[in-house]
Amino acid sequence: MINNPDTHTDVFIAGGGPAGVCAAYTAAKNGANVIIAEQLGDLGGMSTSGLMSHWTGDCGSVLYHEILRRSAELNGGKYHGKITNTIDPENLKYLYLKMLDEVGVKIMLYTFVEDVIISGDNILGASVINKSGRTKIYAKTVIDATGDGDLAAMSGVEFILGRENDGKMQPATIMFKVGGVDYERAVFPAMFEDTVYTEKGELQALAREKLPYPAGHVLLYPTTLPGIVTCNMTNCIDIDGTKAEDLTRATFVCRSQMKKIVEYLREYAPGYEKCFIVSSASFIGIRETRHFKGEYTITAQDILEAREFEDAVVKDACFNFDVHNITGAGIDKTGVQKEFKQEKGYTIPYRCLLPKGKENLLLCGRNISGTHMAHSNYRAMPICAGIGEAAGAAAAIAAKNNVSVRNVSADEIRALIF
Q1: List of residues 6+ apart from 338 with CB closer than 8 A
Q2: What's this model's pTM, rounded to 2 decimal places?
Q3: Domains of the chain by residue range
Q4: What's the CATH superfamily of 7-164+290-323+340-417?
Q5: What is the pLDDT of residues 50-85, one digit of tens each?
C-alpha cells in the first residue's frame, strides 16, 4: 500500500451528500481551507447518485435555496415553468462540483475514510484511502457528514442504532425511473396516505395485494424530463445500513422487486401502460442507522412545539414524521404525513452537532443527536443542507479564531448564515 505524505487543512469533511457539500461550501466561502472526501464518484449522495425525486420538506437555509435557484438556471431557468424542489440529478452532479470549485474546496472522490486520527478525546483528523493510496489528513475541525456517522463511530462517540426500544431501523430503498409514461393521464401519489381510485381498484390496496412483500406501496413523482417518472417503491426491511452484508442483501432484494413493480404499474396505474425502466440508483438509500449522543438530543416534542432554542443554528425546518413501515410496506403506525399539524417550522440547536466527550468534531446531517422520531423529520435533505451550512460556518469561525468548535457561539454562526 502506498502511503502518501500527510496533509494539513483547516476543515476535513467526510461525506459528500447535501450536508457535506453545504458544510464544505460554507466553510470555504468564509475563508477556511477545506478538504472533502466522498466514497462515490459524484457529490450529492441521495440527491444525485441515489436518484431522489425531489427535495422533500423545507428549511430556512440561504444556501439550500441558492442550490434550488442555481439548479433552475442550469435547466434554462425553468423547472416546469418555475423554480421547484424537483431534482434533475445530472445537472445537480455538475452544480455541486462547480460550487465547491468556486470557493476552492479540495474534492476527493472515490475516497473512503479508513480510520480516525485521535489523541485522547481530541480528534486530529482522518486517514483516507483511494487508488492513490493512503493519506493522513490532519484538520483543526473534522465534520462527519457520512450519514451513518462512520467517523464519529470510529472516534468512540456513544450512539444507539435505530429505534430506542428495539433497535429496529427504517427500511432501505433503491430509487428508479421509468419512461414511456403518458403525463396527460398519469397519476402521482406522493405520500403513503394518498389514495388513487381506478376502475381496477385503489392503487395502494392493490399494491399491497399484488407486489412481492415487503414492497407494497405506490409513490410516484414527476421529473424534469418528458415521460419520465421517479419510483420510490422498492423496499427491504430488517436492514442494518452499517453492515456491508446487509447492504448487499438489500440491494439484491430491491433490484429483484423492480420488474414486478413495472408489471404492476403497466397493469393498474393509469398512464403507465407502456412504462419501462430507464435508470436506477447506483447505491441504496439508507434512511436510518446511528443516533449519536450530543450535548443536546432533539426530540419529537421539540419539533411538535416548534421550540425556539437559544443556540439555534438551523431555522424554519419543516417536514413530517416520515417513518417508513419497519415491518413491511407503507407508512409505519408511528408515522404522520398528511395529518402532521406543526406547520410553523422548528429550530435545531448547535448542541445537537457537538458530540459528547470529543473535541474538534462536528456531527452533520442525519447523524446529529436526536431521537428516532425526531430523526424521521430532520433527515429530510433540505434540513440536512441547513445543518451542513451551520457546521461549515462553525468550522470556519473556529479556524479563523484558532479555537475548538465547542467554543464557537451560536450567535457567531447565525451572523454568517441567517
Answers
A1: 191, 193, 194, 320
A2: 0.97
A3: 7-164+290-323+340-417, 176-280
A4: FAD/NAD(P)-binding domain (3.50.50.60)
A5: 999 999 999 999 999 999 999 988 876 554 546 779
